[in-house]
Fold this protein.
Amino acid sequence: MGAVRTAASEALLVDRVSKRYGDRRALHEVSFTAAAGELIAIIGPNGAGKTTLLQIVAGSLEPTGGRVDSSHAIGWVPQQPAVYSKLSVAENLRLFARLEKVSDVGATVDRMLDQTRLRERAKDEVGQLSGGNRQRLNIAVGLLSEPPVVLLDEPSASLDPRQREVLWDFVGGLASRGTTVVYSTHNVGEAEHYADRVLVLADGELLFTGTPAELRQAGADHGDANFEAAFVRFLHARGH
Amino acid sequence: MRWLLLKDLQILRRSPLLVAILVLYPAVLAVLVGTATNAGPSKPKVAFLNLVPKSKNNFSIGGERLDASKYANRIFKSIEPLRVKTRKEAVDAVRSGRALGALILPKDATERLRSTINLSGSDPPTVEVLYNADNPAKQRFVESTINARLGEANNALSKRLTKITAQYISVIVEGGQFSLFGQKFDVLGLRNSQRIIEGQLATMPKDAPARAALEQVARFAKLASDNLDVSKPILQAIGKPVQVKTTIVKGRSSSLDAFVAPLTVTVALTFVTLLLAAGMLALEREEHAFGRLVRGLVSRLGLVAEKVALAALCAFAATGLMLIVLALFVGLEWSRAPLWIPALALGALGFAGMGVAVGCLAREVRSASLLVFALSLPMAALALVPTGAVGDGVYKVVEAVNFVLPFKWALQALDAAINDAEPSLGVPLVHLAILTVAFTGVARLALRRFA
């Protein structure tokens, strides 16, 4: 999944973004860039500020300081499926495609039904779908306008292992077609396997930016630690 | 069991809106009712204008002196008089809501009462009652309150007149002096007549001319028959010595029967529109779709406006159908049907505006529905509180609340459209339009905390 990154291919710039809720600091001067087609995983303990960071990048939340710069449209897939449970899968896709003002609604819906493998459930009400299928639809809605940058908040949280594999195949396919994907996850193993770069957040601070291999190395005790153990050790070493 | 109970209490504690409704709602209602009861006038305030000259306050009936002010004071035991000097002042007091109504005692009141009792053939005195007729429910309250007070005064007067009538009858039976048109007559009485006749009959030869005695009996017979002839108007006067003429100084109200149609439709409009608008907006939050929508797909104002339009349109259709069905049963004037449309449309928009504002407060549809029910019933009740039924301060608060809520205006608009009641259609329609815009603006601002 690696790709050659150049400044020219930079799709997203996050510059010293901060967020405070009263006295509580949720994010403190977080900066990173993302290149076109890059897969970036944001990992960190609970309450690290992962969702807050994604919401700010998505434009759903105003930062207290800093800026987000992207010359491209940003697709946003929230953690909880943001679709209408009383509408069918196809009706949801059609509705959001129209709201996104895509040029060919029918073709776009067809494409997303195929990509998400939901064609057989197209006429089923979303309320009757499993959590995994709902999440696939949720992602599909975020991708309707084919945004060059997609943000996914804990996309695999409610999926079983088989569904997770389908999801990451799908996400990997997006990145290989040039879409920048930034996602948050609690599952550090996913970050190791499905990310070009990993951002480690803890208590609102960005502690690490680099490849999964570099993170493993940074947290390795004797050089042979597994990724999750290396990650935990890295956090401990940084006082978290 | 105990743990389940604890768990449920914990859940309740973590649902502040639900707890607020469950605890605060009855508390607020209790405070409102308590305040209204305590602050409400123990006696309804009624403007009182006495046009009877002081010299005519005392008058004589059947040789008895009566004091009109004594009977007026009897009314004041159960109403608080707001004494005014002119009819205009009385009208102003009622129109402004300072008084529940006004009672005007005409200048010839005592003269007419005396004339009626003295059988001079004139009409009984008529006091004038003025009141507002915002709607028939209020009107009925005012009418019944004032009529009850007048009834008490009439009863007191009636008792006094009954005593006088009993004296008339006593004179007829026992004999004595009878005063009529300022002249005093000696009345023999039935018993004396009987004694005389019996005495004469006992001593008189069968062929003796008993002319004088018979003449006396004949005079009594004539007087007795005359008195029997006039007993009917006397008894009528005793039944209701003072007549009442009512005048509406503000508003033109429909009958209570006709008022049922706009009231029913307004109540339906309230629930349908508020539930739809509040519920549909809360649904966006419950489905987590709000954040996705306002990320460039729809503006927040656009979203609110869409909910207002949806709720208003659905409620318009539902209540329009309801009104048509009502018209078939109640017999409403079909010629006024074109006026139903703006009244229903603006009423629905007003409630829809309020509905989206309520919807912004709720996290999910159930809370929104609960809020709607909690707000609707007091809103409807407040709109029907009549002038003067509560204390001045409380009434001002009630009026202020009614001013910013759509129920009263929707009710007025529908009553005007259906029954040609006053105020005319224009004022409530304009007010409803303003409320729609204002509530939509409030909802838009409240959406800041909605993400």
Observations:
- Confidence is low (pLDDT under 50) at residues 1-7 of chain A.
